[in-house]
């Protein structure tokens, strides 16, 4: 018998990742009903955990009795002292960087610019994710996941979203955007966080 989790995200990329990762655990992950009608909270936490927790608590109050899942995730680049970090989705916007392209492309272009001249050995980075599960305004559990990689000088692959075309996995000799969903979710930060959270919830 499957269990239901309701994801507090409108990101189709995140929903796709969650659904793919959940298949191995007899889970059904659906977007929170009427999520687009709910005013978004201010994500002013200084850590991924703080933002995930505040979102889980906030959105679970709009879905009485439901198990609500919220995540905060992003990219930490060592040569940039851990940036963009919790500001990953707003990296280009924060810098006033615009190229006439969409948000993901702007973020990737700015990252390439900021790492110009940095050697391959210094381009180490990681994707990090924290998931928080709440019900009726109370946190039940949190879990984290991470995956190490290297930032490429130019994008590779047409899959994934966010920084995936620039996030290279040396062990596989492929970028995250070159992986199929099944492979991606066995090693991605989001897949690992979900796998860690499920037993905590007793699902």
Overall mean confidence score, pLDDT: 91
Count of helices?
A: 6
Low-confidence stretches: none
Please count the beta strands (DSSP E, at least 2 residues each): 7
Largest sheet: 7 strands, mixed
Q: What Rg do the Cα atoms give?
A: 17 Å
Strand order within the widest beta sheet:
2-1-3-4-5-6-7
Write the layout of secondary structure elements.
Layout: E1 3-7, H1 12-22, E2 27-31, H2 48-60, E3 68-77, H3 91-95, H4 103-114, E4 124-135, E5 138-151, E6 167-169, E7 174-175, H5 181-187, H6 189-201
Helix pairs in contact: 1-5, 1-6, 5-6
Task: List the main descriptive attributes of the protein structure presented here.
Maf protein, 30% helix, globular, 203 residues, 7-stranded mixed β-sheet, alpha/beta
